[in-house]
What we know:
Strand content: under 5%
Radius of gyration: 14 Å
Largest sheet: none
Shape: globular
Number of domains: 1
Amino acid sequence: MKQRLNITLSRELIGEVDGRRGLATKSALIEHELRKSFGMPPQGTSTRTEREG
């Protein structure tokens, strides 16, 4: 079952996203900000940390 998540993006983030080219880059930037706001590590960080440790 899909659930909808309502979020509010800051004007600074919207400006940064608009300045980027390509949908993948914009999606990655938004995903990074969402992960940061929920206290989650950036994508791929846990894998690198496990390899280094």
